[in-house]
Every structure is written in C-alpha cells, then in structure tokens.
Amino acid sequence: MAEKKRPLLGFVGKLPSGTTAGNSGKTHCPLCMGLFKAPRLLPCLHTVCTTCLEQLEPFSVVDIGGGESDTSSEGSIFQKLKPRALQPPIGILCPVCDAQVDLPMGGVKALTIDHLAMNDVMLESLRGEGQGLVCDLCSDREVEKRCQTCKANLCHFCCQAHRRQKKTTYHTMVDLKDLKGYSQIGKPILCPAHPAEELRLFCELCDQPVCRDCVVGEHREHPCDFTSNVIHKHGDSVRELLRGTQPHVEALEEALAQIKGTNSALQERVKAVAADIRTFSEGYIKAIEEHRDKLLKQLEDIRVQKENSLQLQKAQLEQLLADMRTGVEFTEHLLTSGSDLEILITKGVVVERLTKLNKVEYSAHPGVSEKITFSPKEKAGLCRGYEVYGAINTKEVDPAKCVLQGEDLHRAREKQPASFIVLCKDATGESMGRGGDNVQVTVIPKDKKDSPVKTMVHDNKDGTYYVSYTPKEPGTYTVLVCVKEQHVQGSPFTVTVRKRHRSHPGVFHCCTFCSSGGQKTARCACGGTMPGGYLGCGHGHKGHPGRPHWSCCGKFTEKSECTWAGGQSAPRSLLRTVAL
C-alpha cells in the first residue's frame, strides 16, 4: 500500500495554485540554498538535493513494533519492491521538518526524483533568474535551441549536428527565448532499467510507470496502459484525497489563527496584569515606606519623651543629692567641730532642714523603662488603602497587675469544658491592648499531681487570653497561671470539680393531669394529688405549688440540675410523666 501512495503524492505537487517557476522555495535547496541538482522528494514532501542528503548523518532506526513507520520512505517509484526485513534500518532526518526518513535499500539515490522541481529549475534558468543551461549532448556549451520532439536542450554545434542526422532531420527546433512563456518544458523521463526508453506506460499491478521494454520483460502479462489513458483515474483519486485533506488545512489554519489571536490576547492580558502588579507593588512600596517613616518618627518621639523623663528625674535626683550632701556635711561638721553652745544655737535650723529632706519622696529606680519592642506581625491598620503590619510597643506586662476573669474560675464539671480569661496589664494597671505575651497555665489534680490536665491558651491579640480545660474526674484541682514565669494576681487558686450535670428525666409541666393526659396513676415530685383517685397534682388542688415545675424533682427552674435520686428510695416512688 505504501508503494501505491507514492505517485499520487508526487502528483499533488502540481495542484497548488498561485505558485510560480521563479519561486525560490520550489527551485532552491533548503540546505545549500542553490538551485536544485538531482532533487529528491522525501516522504514528508520536502525536496532536497541528492548531494545535500548524502551529507546528512544517518542513524539506525529501531522499530519496536516491527511494522512500518508512518514517516518511512517508500523509495523510488522505479525501485523494485523489496521485503521489509531485507531493508537495513538506516534513516535520516528531513532538514526542513525533522521528520524521520527511513532510507530504502539503494540509499539516498533510491529516493524519488522530483521531476517537477527539475522543470521549475529549467524554467527559472530560461528566464534568466538562474545559472545558464548547458547542452544536454556535449555538456560544454550554453543552450541556444530546444528540440521539441526529443525534448533536449542543444547548443549551436549540436543543433546543426541534430539537423544533419537523417533520423532527426525533421524534428522541431525552437529558440530558448521563445520558451520563456512556457510552464512545462521538462526533459523526457527515461526508464532507470532501460535508459534508452522513455516512460510512457503505467503498470496497474505494480502501480508504477514503465517503458516498452519493461512491458515485454518483467511486467509481461501485467495490465498496462498509456499514462495519458490512466491519468484521469489516478488524478481523480488524488483529487478526492486532496478534497479530504483541504478541510484539514483550513481547520488547521483557523486553529493557528485562533492560537495566534489567543496568544495576542494573552500577551495583552499579561501586559495589563503586569501593569496592575506594578501599580499595586509601587503603591504598596510607597505605603510601606510611609508606614516605615511613621514608625521611625514614632520611635524618635518615644526616645525624646523617655530621654526627657530621664533627664528630668536625673536633675531632680541630682538636686536632692546635693541638698542631702549639704545637710549631711554641715551637720557632721557641726557635730564634730562646733561647741555645745553652737550646736544648740543651730540645732533648730539643722533639725528642720534634715527633717524636710527626709520627708522628700523619690524613686530609686528609673522612672521610665528602656523597654521598646517591634512586633512585625501585628496589624497596624491601613496606609494609602493598603493593610500594613508592624507596631512599636513600649508597654511591658507586669504579672503582679494581671488579673483573672470568668465564672468558671473556682468551679467546674467533670468531662465538661471550663474556661476563664487572663487580662494582662502593665505596671500602671493599664491593659496591654495587644497579644504576644508568654502566658502559661497548668491545671493539676490534688490527688494526681503527676497527671496535669491538658490546657489550651488562645491569644485574642487584644491583651486577653482565653484559657480552657476539661477535667476528667471530680475533685479539687490547683490552677497555676504565670506570665513571664511569674504568678499573676490570684494564682495559684483551687477549683472544685463536681460530678457531671444531671439532666431532668421528667417533664417541666404545669400539672400532672395536663402533662399525662388525665392518667390517674401518674405522679409528680411536688406531692400534690387530686380527688377521684388521681395520684398526681392538678391546678388548684392539694399540694400543687402554683407554678410550673419539674415532675421528676419538683424544681421550679427549667434550666437546672435534677436532684431526683431515682430508684425505690425516691419519695412516693415518683413516676415520670410524658409531655403531650
């Protein structure tokens, strides 16, 4: 089947419209860029000079499946069919499209000759667009005429000799300048097996052109006919195949156009997004720089404020120290050098001064702390519409000022979550207003000090910390709350864990008669009864409490813990009622 496709594909080369003989893509080799010399047609329908193909580096072809490759060459249309197993696995790559070309037994010279390209080269040469043609007989002189009968290009000397021969005397000779308007002046295609014979017949069985000697030789008894008689049938089959191929060309061109359009849209979109990114990043950078400048200014203000406070405290302490030294030195000198009368005379002034100095209050510690921290992950609000991070903190948590809050500080239930809040404050008692402090909570059972309860500490980022834990058993627990490894106010403290909350097995009703649907045997923990043998309570009757209550324990609060003991020991063996 591969051999049958070869001449059809070669015929397709004549069909495209809009091509000219002067087209360099049809007359010039893609490798040497010169006019074709013995051009060979590859299975991918690209044409390359024979010598250029022979210079390509061959490689071994590995056929894993054992079948024919899609891009394998069928060889020359004149090559005798050979078994696939006898062909050497040698191939080359098309220099135009990199398609794999499996070489036939005869190598590069066994590939199909592109006669159409040879005709285009000849036409281009005739039109002065290529190199001058040389005589087909002597191969030395330039061509002047062409024999239309022999289809040979002849120089002046060979043309005269051609006319003197009796066999060619009446052949039609035409000047080359008169052939420039022709589109087909190719040489006769000779049989490779019989070089003296022209290929004019076509063997249907072998699907290849043959000459007269081939018909009486190896193609004897094969169905053969003149090429002019079979071209219509084979041309129609090629045209039919072409009609099936052309929609794919259109579809591929449309797909490529869509890809090109999508690529253009992609480039435009990338440019737009890149512009957005640059705008965003430039704005963000400006916001960060502005926030940086604000932080640095804030830091400088804090420095000035703290320095002023320290300088003021320093000046006050230095003045107080000078006053103290003056008083001490004068008094010591008075006591050591003064007479009794002098001491008594100045005693009043000295005592008053020393008493006043001793009453002066001062702090032995710096009035401000050097504590300044930067929290890069702390949100700092919006700047130029962008959310920025990073804040300067001068507050320092004081464990002695931290307090505990919550209803579950000193009570809890077994297997039920208990929680409380740790509120961190600074030395002035002001809330820290931020998170990040090291808060540690430990809950230890009194009887099992080596088995602490697992605790969870959640930083609310506002100076408060949510602490939760779940005691497994009832009993007394000790809770330790430390900040910066120091106990806070009220730590440690004890928590009494009671048994799990008991739900009510009865119903919360107005009376037994209503909740039971008038059953006489239904009872209530309130102890009320009704005439007529009713064991439960009823509105306005003896023992009714006058308000809604639980039938199981008699409690008046709907959301409460049940105190019914259950069993036969319960008062009057109370029956649970069912709500209608």
Automatic annotation (TrEMBL):
Residue windows of the Filamin repeats: 394-497
MF-aspect GO terms: ubiquitin protein ligase activity; zinc ion binding
B box-type domain boundaries: 130-176, 186-222
Highest taxon above the source species: Eukaryota
Pfam families, per database record: Filamin, zf-B_box, zf-RING_UBOX
EC number(s) from the headed UniProt entry: 2.3.2.27
Keywords assigned: Coiled coil, Metal-binding, Repeat, Ubl conjugation pathway, Zinc, Zinc-finger
Annotated transmembrane regions: none
GO biological process: bone development; inflammatory response; negative regulation of inflammatory response; proteasome-mediated ubiquitin-dependent protein catabolic process; protein K48-linked ubiquitination
Coiled-coil ranges per UniProt: 249-323
UniProt-listed SMART domains: BBC (SM00502), BBOX (SM00336), IG_FLMN (SM00557), RING (SM00184)
Catalytic function, reaction form: S-ubiquitinyl-[E2 ubiquitin-conjugating enzyme]-L-cysteine + [acceptor protein]-L-lysine = [E2 ubiquitin-conjugating enzyme]-L-cysteine + N(6)-ubiquitinyl-[acceptor protein]-L-lysine
Domain RING-type, chain residue ranges per copy: 29-98
Cellular component per GO, a single term: nucleoplasm
UniProt xrefs under CDD domains: Bbox1_TRIM45_C-X, Bbox2_TRIM45_C-X, RING-HC_TRIM45_C-VII
Family to which this protein belongs: Belongs to the TRIM/RBCC family.
Full protein name: RING-type E3 ubiquitin transferase
